[in-house]
Predict the structure of Nudix hydrolase domain-containing protein.
Amino acid sequence: TFVGTNLNPLWEKFLVPSEDDVIQCQHTASPLGNGAVVETSDKKILLLQRSNNVGEFPGHFVFPGGHPEPQDAGITSHPCGSTDSEFINHKVSQEMFDSITREVVEEIGVPSESLCNPLFIGISRRRLNVRPAAFFFIKCSLQSNEIQQLYSTAQDGYESTQLFAVSMIELENMASKMPGCHQGGFALYKLMVEAMNNIPQNS
């Protein structure tokens, strides 16, 4: 469904004219992706360069990520009849946070115990084909040079060709070569940093 709607060359014909995202995108699959702004212990941000063999945005710079898996939340089909919506909502919410940690571990090769709990920073939706993605901020206890060594044995390393550990200035320069939703993720990260800098420090 995603290939037939969002990835269709005529994807704009599926949109309904509306300011409301739910109404506008009601005829597109729009599966929710995810991405993580991972900060190393030496204050670098991790970026991947996507392989030329992937279906979406080959060769582009991206934050590590992918998408939540409904079946990992125990959802294999659209629920019918009487269901415990509170229980399902809890399982879906848990999978949102579990899945981004899983994606970082699989794509970069770092052990899960080196990652702090993900902090949800917002949802970005790219203009091209209206694909949405949830973004998180995660601190890693490892230094960037240690992570470079682990990356060579990452489970999903085939999805990317190179790992970059960059400063905020370098990231700003690379952002133009990122998919729109990841540019949005970077904008959300900058808003988070700005908000944290404005919090008064305890004396």
